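User: My advisor, Dr. K., asked me to get a structural model of this assembly before our group meeting. I'm new to this, so sorry if the format is off. These are the inputs:
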Amino acid sequence: MMNTVKNKSRLTGAFSKLNKEGKKAFIPFNLLGYPDKKSCISSLKALVEGGATALELGLPFSDPMADGPLIQRASHSVLEAGFSIADAVAIIKEIRSACPDTPINLLTYFNPALSNGVEPFLARFKEAGVDAVTFVDLPLEEMEEIYGTLQNLELDSVMLISPLTPPHRIDEILKYAKGFLYLVSRAGTTGMQDSFSNKLEEVINIIKERTELPVLIGFGISGAEQARNMIELGADGVIVGSKILDIIGKSNLNERDKNLASFTRELVNAIG
Amino acid sequence: MLTSTKFGAYGGVYAPETLIPALEELEKAFIAFEKDFQLQAELKELLADYAGRPTPLYLARNLSKNWGANIYLKREDLLHGGAHKTNNAVGQALIARSMGKTRLIAETGAGQHGVATAMAGALFSMPVRVYMGALDLERQAQNVTRMKMMGAEVCPVETGGATLKDAINDALRDWIGNLDNTHYLLGTAAGPHPFPTIVKALQKVIGEEIAEQFTTRKNRLPDAIIACVGGGSNAIGAFSRFIDERSVKLIGVEPAGKGLGSGFSGAVIAEGKSGVLHGMKSMVMQNEDGQILETHSIAAGLDYPSVGPEHAYLNAIGRVRYDCATDQEAVDAYLATTRLEGIIPALESSHALACARRLSAGELAGCDIVVNLSGRGDKDMDTVSAYTA
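Assistant: The format is fine. Below is the predicted structure of the whole assembly, which you can bring to the meeting.
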């Protein structure tokens, strides 16, 4: 039997701890199986050692329509190497046993979940150690299809909000949101472009008027200064994805994990 | 959303949150467009005087004699631009203008929708960018030249199988980043709501004309309508008028490529299963992990691993029968139509002709069959020459 956390999810626990310490959250993203299974596991451990609040793990998908070139290329190379859902589950199991307190959010497109039945898919990842799930292409209009299953399995649903999301939609999104809210920094795909919506502060305020859920900003954040700016706008933390893949891709094998840990420390200190 | 997003279990809005306000804006503009007399009059005038509607319904005398049924060709190949895609491009460009958008983007497989969008861009003075798979760029080079001459920028897409599916991914990514000024002029009756509904509304003129033209001649409706199905815009346009006319057999023809079960086909309804791709739930070619598979068809415009959601629905309720034709059958029908009628059909439409030929020798022998000749086939001459060499 799996260990179910009573009442409070790992994510909620991690955020209330940060809150008490007056700290902000840093959540790095990596694609499951990138650049290969073994290196992926060791890089995730390095991110946790560096001080990551939680991990966001992406399931590679053949048609990642919301992703920029870096994550597209990584997804295709992982899939071409024969990576499967079974491999993804195995990686998560290993991280769960190595890092028992680190919350894990699974980020996925909907089709891999739908393909073999949403319930078995989610149950498999829950059992492996996932705490929360974000579906990139499942807006609130389609959430009813899976929400009951998420609740039954005690998985948090991390919902996306964009700077274009109007307040009445935010109200509806909040009905499904648990764990934290993922605010996209701009209308665009993932990647390291240095441009953010000028509506971010306004949207954060609109969200904060309505909920106590932490608001994390992601998309395009690649360094300490940008992360600090997001915190100044009122975010409770940041999510960094493409930059992590970039570090992995550019580092020598023997320095990769060291670089990831030091990048994480730098970010954690910056947003302290 | 203001109107129903689903066709039975299919359709919906499986799109990233960032796109939702744009889809809502588009739905609103479309509802207004349908009620706006001035815009409707402008559309009608453009379809008549610019595009050349109505297109003829031609009783193909030699094919009929050779194949054993009365084969009527709905001549969308004679529409300006050379395919039915113009109906949709002109209509959506009007909607884009009504929303204040100043830039058009599109995906294209065979290049016909790219050409239609390039035409609309020239007509409405809007810059156009067309995403096209690198493989398709090569096999439909003639259409690429046409697009460029009309001022469109053609962006080769190298990811995945470098075909239509990948072009749609890149067009969606462009749109997500440029929602302020850009309309994504989706070419087929697929994608998230409201696209399948909009494209059907703009293509249904095909079926309405078939009904009128056939009735004028024979004082009744035809026995069967046959159309090829990739995403399915020409088929839904031809079928829509007849869905409630139970006496009319409706047959969609998917590309079987090198044969069903060969691993090289694009027969999504025959070989796929329910899934989500490009913002819609429909039938999808996928592996056991839900990863989308590459498809194969000699016709670039049919080389797509999913199908418009309404087709998935019409199949599920049994109203439309989905058959298929192989590359070989399509090429045979292409050559037969070219030689017997002096009409060069698009390889896409040749799949419908191939099915008509087969059924004429069997269950539809002696019947009145309308084949939607969705496009002209000059673009395919090199492909066919290479195939038959």
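One thing worth pointing out at the meeting: The radius of gyration of chain A is 17 Å.

User: Perfect, thanks a lot.
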